[in-house]
Design a protein that fits this description.
Layout (H helix, E strand, L loop, with lengths): L4 E3 L9 E3 L2 H10 L7 E5 L5 E9 L2 E10 L9 E6 L5 H11 L4 E5 L10 H22 L6 E2 L5 H6 L7 E5 L5 E2 H4 L9 E5 L7 H9 L3 E4 L7 H15 L5
Amino acid sequence: MSIPRFFISAPITDGANLVLPESVAHHALRVLRLPPGSTIVLFNGQGGAWQATLTAQGKQGLAQITGFDPSDTELPGRVTLVQGIASGDKMDWIVEKAVELGAHTIAPIAAQRSVLRLSGERLEKRLAHWRRIAQAACEQCGRNQLPTVQAPVTLAQWLADPANTGMLRLLCHPDAADTLHSALPAPPSSAPLALLVGPEGGWSDDELRQASNQAVRPVRFGPRVLRTETAGLALLAATSALLGWQD
């Protein structure tokens, strides 16, 4: 049985005796029913993880830090999944699996054909929800660095952000002349790149023009048309394999 892992947003030092956040203590003691003395792993998203011994005082959970493991499971290169917002629970699935596959950043795009429209308090709640999913996925898959889940913007806004220039940007399109394989750099390469995937209805003609004007390169991926909740994840996995990042 694997050792349970928990994220806490607090400094962790070797030898410390930490009071666990209420949600973490509840999960460990009430949901998982871990007995006092159990070994757990804590990480705070800054890299590495700490082994600890779980204890309890009433409903309060405590963790005695016993050691540090500096290893991580990050990909050699930073990949941003630029995902047109999908409807229903599809976006939850995309966020969770993108984290498992090693995405460094997930950039939700309020695309012109996105069915789900978010604004105000609803947007803030959904963004917090996606970030909790990313955190839980890190706990499950063994990542010690939290990927960034950005606030939704339009494609034009994402393209115009200086932070998103200077990297290879590939847009998934079934009619593209180039393949993913031909567009990627020769391995080994750890240069940052972005993979752009449209929502259920695909990118609009206007968005395709915006991308072309910003030197985004369209690529196709196989002979079949993939659903939005499949395409980005397939591209992530294929990119990692083609660049030799999963050895």
